[in-house]
């Protein structure tokens, strides 16, 4: 009789894969619920229903509701930063500072509104969480903000930042406006591409002379 192993159905790798899929399903479900109901209103029963599992099964993967939400926030924040970095890395070497900011605007809005419920969960809850739940996510968010800090600094170094715009204030105003899109955008109200083009135009016109 074959011994269960990596190449045998029911072996260790199969069990690990199934466990990873369940964890991923729980994270996805928690992100959806958290984005809709917020930290205070998110219950394990709601997450279990969204993930199509029994609520007690969640404790096999996460010791508490807070541990699950903490993982959602961290994974989501890390994914946002990775997505932004990939979008910028894909630009040609000839891309100008304005080109890079335009690409960053698109990356932010696509991830927030089209790709990931995690982004909405982060935007709506990052400032409402206990410190132990938000610590890792806030470190990733700080790293994300650092990417934007460099983008605006490069625009300034190229002489393309308006003299009456403080770089730090300008950056935070831009990110605040982009984040707010999660509250008002409705796919039925118009295509996302139109929102992105408008946002790119407004951001660049607000930052440049």
Question: Care to describe what's here?
Answer:
With 209 residues, the chain is mostly helical. It has helices at residues 12-41, 44-51, 58-61, 65-89, 97-115, 117-125, 131-157, 167-184, 192-207. The protein is elongated and about 60 Å long. The N and C termini lie far apart (76 Å). The relative contact order is 0.11. The model is unreliable at 1-9 (pLDDT under 50).
How are the elements arranged and paired?
Layout: H1 12-41, H2 44-51, H3 58-61, H4 65-89, H5 97-115, H6 117-125, H7 131-157, H8 167-184, H9 192-207
Helix pairs in contact: 1-2, 1-4, 1-6, 4-5, 4-6, 4-7, 5-6, 5-7, 5-8, 5-9, 7-8
Give keywords.
209 residues; mainly alpha; Tetracycline Repressor, domain 2; 9 helices; 0% strand; elongated; disordered N terminus
Task: Give a brief description.
The chain has 209 residues and is mostly helical. The protein has helices spanning 12-41, 44-51, 58-61, 65-89, 97-115, 117-125, 131-157, 167-184, 192-207. The longest helix has 30 residues, at 12-41.
β-strand percent reads under 5%
| Spatial shape | elongated
Note the gap between the termini. Answer: 76 Å
CATH second-level architecture of the domain at 67-207:
Orthogonal Bundle
User: How many strands, which pairing sense, and closed or not: the largest β-sheet?
Assistant: none
Gyration radius, rounded: 20 Å
Helical coverage, percent range: over 70%
Instruction: Tell me how many strands there are.
Output: 0
- Total helical segments: 9
Low-confidence stretches: 1-9
CATH class of the domain at 67-207: Mainly Alpha
Order of helices and strands: HHHHHHHHH
Which secondary-structure class do the elements indicate? mainly alpha
CATH superfamily of the domain at 67-207: Tetracycline Repressor, domain 2
Mean pLDDT: 90
Kindly identify the CATH topology of the domain at 67-207.
Answer: Tetracycline Repressor, domain 2
């Amino acid at each position: 009789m074959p011994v269960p192993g990596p190449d045998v159905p029911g072996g260790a790798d199969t069990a690990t894969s199934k466990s990873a899929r369940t964890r991923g399903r729980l994270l996805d479900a928690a992100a959806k619920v958290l984005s809709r109901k917020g930290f205070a209103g998110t219950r394990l029963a709601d997450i279990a229903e969204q993930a199509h599992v029994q609520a007690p099964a969640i404790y096999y993967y996460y010791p508490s509701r807070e541990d699950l939400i903490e993982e959602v926030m961290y994974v989501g924040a890390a994914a946002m930063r990775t997505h932004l970095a990939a979008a910028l890395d894909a630009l040609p070497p000839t891309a100008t500072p304005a080109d890079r900011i335009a690409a960053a605007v698109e990356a932010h809005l696509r991830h927030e509104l089209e790709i990931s419920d995690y982004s909405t969960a982060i935007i709506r809850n990052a400032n409402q969480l206990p410190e132990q739940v938000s610590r890792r996510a806030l470190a990733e968010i700080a790293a994300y903000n650092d990417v934007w800090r460099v983008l605006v600094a490069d625009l300034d170094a190229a002489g393309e930042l308006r003299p009456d715009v403080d770089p730090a204030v300008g950056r935070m105003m831009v990110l605040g406006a982009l984040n707010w899109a999660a509250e008002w955008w409705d796919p039925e109200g118009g295509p996302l591409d139109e929102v992105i083009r408008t946002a790119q135009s407004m951001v660049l016109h607000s930052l440049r002379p």
